[in-house]
Amino acid sequence: xxxxxxxxxxxxxxxxxxxxxxxxxxxxxxxxxxxxxxxxxxxxxxxxxxxxxxxxxxxxxxxxxxxxxxxxxxxxxxxxxxxxxxxxxxxxxxxxxxxxxxxxxxxxxxxxxxxxxxxxxxxxxxxxxxxxxxxxxxxxxxxxxxxxxxxxxxxxxxxxxxxxxxxxxxxxxxxxxxxxxxxxxxxxxxxxxxxxxxxxxxxxxxxxxxxxxxxxxxxxxxxxxxxxxxxxxxxxxxxxxxxxxxxxxxxxxxxxxxxxxxxxxxxxxxxxxxxxxxxxxxxxxxxxxxxxxxxxxxxxxxxxxxxxxxxxxxxxxxxxxxxxxxxxxxxxxxxxxxxxxxxxxxxxxxxxxxxxxxxxxxxxxxxxxxxxxxx
Length: 375
Known about the structure:
With 375 residues, the protein is α+β, with helices and mostly antiparallel strands. Helix content is 48%, strand content 9%.
């Protein structure tokens, strides 16, 4: 569902009373690796960055590991205390959170048909990100207004986290759009900082922020919400492809033409090509491609099902999209067709699979900070 208007589910909730579950959730270890590398790049030792966090190097290297929000805050506190002269450190940190840092959630956002649908999904599943601030998104006239809240955070790390989270959003937007988002205005509650910090903000957002404002806000044209996402950044698209390829390879290796076809099926998030398209790209007819696959004991349909089934399971358990969103990203005409296919793969419908995995269906439980109302 595309976001065209947003209303708060808790009327004008104060940022000082943000429920802990909206920010104090367990998060992927990738954020710890980003923060540790930031410290290392500035000459710190790993033990210094990890001090008092309860984390060791082995834990940070676990690809499926998680840490508590308060552990991440301690990592940030260590960076702030050890590098007090780096007034733009939060901005630098946020620019290191790329689409691929978020794993399958990043892939799901990148595969969204429009910016509005990507923001809708991202906002609903904030606990799949590394955000410590919370935000509200609303349409006011012809513009979108995003308000960031941070008063629930410790004062000694609050500005770093605000800078980090806003820079991470800008980085994500740039990568899924393939270009910078055109902001109309950037509002900040903080007092006007030194010129080099103002310059860093201006380069990040593309406009000079206004300081001493009542809220921390970003404003941009509502028309951008309807803009198709082109997956235009080749580097990010390639990394997403590699990430998905590793997932599928774990289920069984392929060689020859079958491997080429399967890799091509994963190359473009949000668009799975058909056999005619792939055979043309490979410089052969679909009949010749079918003959090659048959000789290798494979078929185009089996490869397509292999890719779809693997990504479907991952998107349900790790990115927690709705069934309709998954169907859309895997190239199904409608959700019913996807549900029938999943039942064929797993012997149970998606809802039962999720229940067996202990995954709550999106929207079926837990607090919702915002709900989306179609115009």
